Q: What sequence folds into this?
C-alpha cells in the first residue's frame, strides 16, 4: 500500500514537471496533480483491462503509437474530471502523456522500486 502511495505522489511530481514544460498543460496545485494522477491511474487500470484485447493489433500496426493515443485520450478524460488541471488540446495531451511516462521511467532508474 505504501508503495502505491509513493508511486502516486511521484507521478504527481511528473505531472507538475510536464506542466512546466508543455505549454498546453496547466496545473493549479500539487493537490490537483495528485488527484489527476489518481484519476489517470484508475482510468488506465480500467481502460487497458478492457481495451488491450481489442486494440493490440492497432498498437502493433502503429508500432506503439496507438498506445500513446489511448494514453492521450485517458489524459483528456482525466482533464474533464479534475478541475485543477487544464489540457488545451489533443496535441498537449499526447506530449503530456509521453512526458509523464518518460519522467516516470527516469525516476524508476533513480529510485528503483519506489518510483512509478
A:
Amino acid at each position: 500500500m505504501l508503495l502505491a502511495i509513493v508511486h502516486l505522489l511521484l507521478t504527481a511530481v511528473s505531472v507538475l514537471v510536464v506542466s512546466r514544460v508543455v505549454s498546453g498543460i496547466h496545473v493549479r496545485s500539487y493537490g490537483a496533480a495528485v488527484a489527476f494522477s489518481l484519476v489517470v491511474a484508475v482510468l488506465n487500470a480500467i481502460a487497458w483491462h478492457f481495451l488491450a484485447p481489442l486494440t493490440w493489433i492497432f498498437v502493433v500496426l502503429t508500432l506503439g503509437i496507438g498506445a500513446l493515443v489511448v494514453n492521450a485520450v485517458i489524459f483528456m478524460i482525466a482533464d474533464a474530471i479534475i478541475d485543477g488541471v487544464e489540457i488545451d488540446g489533443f496535441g498537449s495531451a499526447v506530449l503530456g502523456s509521453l512526458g509523464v511516462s518518460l519522467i516516470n521511467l527516469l525516476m524508476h532508474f533513480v529510485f528503483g522500486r519506489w518510483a512509478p
